[in-house]
Amino acid sequence: MIPENLIATLNDFNGTTGFLNLYILALITGSMLSVNRKLLLRSFGGYIPCILAAIAGFFLLAAIAGLLAGVGPLDAIVKYPAIFHRAIIMSAAVCIWMDKLEGVLKEASYSHIKKLYLDTGTNEFGRMTTREEFLAGAETVRRYFVKGGLGDDILKYTIYQDAIHSQREWRMRFPDALRWVFHEF
């Protein structure tokens, strides 16, 4: 019933020109602009905390799943560059497995990293590590990142005086780490 050349023309018009996308965009925009301004602003105020909570929840679940699978944030950002572009590495006891880590860090590319937070405390130690090993391990990791091209605009490295290896310390430092990694959002 409909001529073939008309079908081809309509398919081209709807498929390649993006007319359908423009129409849907205009329809949604027009609908939003017709809503009372105060109601619209109040609704956005409710969505923003939900979106931020969802993003934070995603990162928390990803970190927990990674740790359960034996992949920490340092492993993730170095070994999976297509997925991880930002990381928070707090009080990492890297000196325990430094011999294996150095091989990975030597081979890694760091060009994908957008933001990286690394810290340690001067009073951190564990059952298998000393204070000096903790500090030396963090400094070694920092040197690899700097050597890989990460400047002060991407890498934040902080040594906290008298900080110990505990959740209480990490809880106090975590907001600063989160702000650094996501400050441009």
Number of helices: 7
Shape: elongated
Order of helices and strands: HHHHEHEHEH
State the separation between the terminal residues, measured CA to CA.
54 Å
- Kindly provide the radius of gyration, computed on alpha-carbon positions and rounded to a whole number of angstroms: 24 Å
pLDDT < 50 stretches: none
In this structure, how is the largest beta sheet organized? 3 strands, parallel
| Share of helix, binned | 55-70%
Name the assembly state.
single chain
* Total number of beta strands: 3
- The overall pLDDT, averaged over residues, is 85
Tally of structural domains:
2
Q: What is the structural class? A: mainly alpha
* Proportion of residues in β-strands: 5-15%
Task: Trace the largest sheet across and list its strands.
Answer: 1-2-3
Tell me about this structure.
- With 185 residues, the protein is mostly helical.
- It has 2 domains: 17-69; 71-182, no CATH class.
- The protein has 7 helices and 3 strands, in the order H-H-H-H-E-H-E-H-E-H.
- Strands 1-2-3 form a 3-stranded parallel beta sheet, sandwiched between helices.
- Strand 1 (86-90), helix 5 and strand 2 form a beta-alpha-beta unit.
- Helix 5 packs parallel to helix 6 (131-147).
- The termini are far apart.
- The mean pLDDT is 85.
